[in-house]
Inverse folding.
């Protein structure tokens, strides 16, 4: 869902920014001395960057947290497999292979929901929505990358502990 919200909010942010900038590009407004068009455009740019950054950070944090919690819940399984002679690298590889399909599938569904939500908002409200490369593609690779890191690091750390230590923790 993080990808869906990121796509949706970034697309709205870019749409609002584009709409206001288009409205400000009227020569008569720029000739009026009391309206600082440059300042307004700078504020819009900063707000768009802030919303985009916040959504990417939120997606990253949620993905990393879920991955970390899931790997921590599998400590017992890791301990048993290590005790059975499975090497540390093999454990991490197995967990990465297991994690990839649901993460990619979830990210694709999130991407689609975000785009559909953007179209719905554009058609049903006054909010303008602009899809661009950043709004469409920024969250997807970050989600995949962080899910991999959030799986690999805890699996690597847990696989490095002795099985007896892991059983004592349980």
């Amino acid at each position: 869902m993080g990808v869906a919200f990121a796509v949706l909010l970034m697309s709205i942010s870019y749409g609002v920014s584009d709409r206001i900038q288009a409205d400000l590009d009227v020569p008569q407004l720029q000739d009026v001395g009391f309206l600082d068009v440059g300042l307004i455009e700078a504020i819009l740019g900063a707000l768009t960057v802030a919303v985009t950054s916040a959504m990417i950070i939120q997606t990253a944090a949620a993905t990393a947290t879920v991955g970390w919690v899931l790997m921590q819940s599998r400590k017992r399984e890791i301990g048993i497999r290590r005790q059975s002679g499975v090497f540390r690298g093999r454990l991490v590889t197995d967990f990465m292979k297991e994690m990839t399909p649901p993460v990619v599938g979830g990210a694709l569904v999130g991407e689609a929901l975000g785009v559909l939500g953007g179209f719905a908002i554009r058609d049903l409200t006054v909010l303008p929505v602009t899809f661009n490369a950043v709004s469409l593609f920024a969250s997807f690779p970050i989600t995949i990358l962080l899910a991999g890191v959030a799986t690999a690091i805890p699996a690597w750390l847990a696989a490095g502990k002795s099985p007896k230590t892991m059983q004592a923790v349980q």
Remarks:
- The chain has a mean pLDDT of 81.
- The chain has eight helices and no strands.
- The radius of gyration is 23 Å.
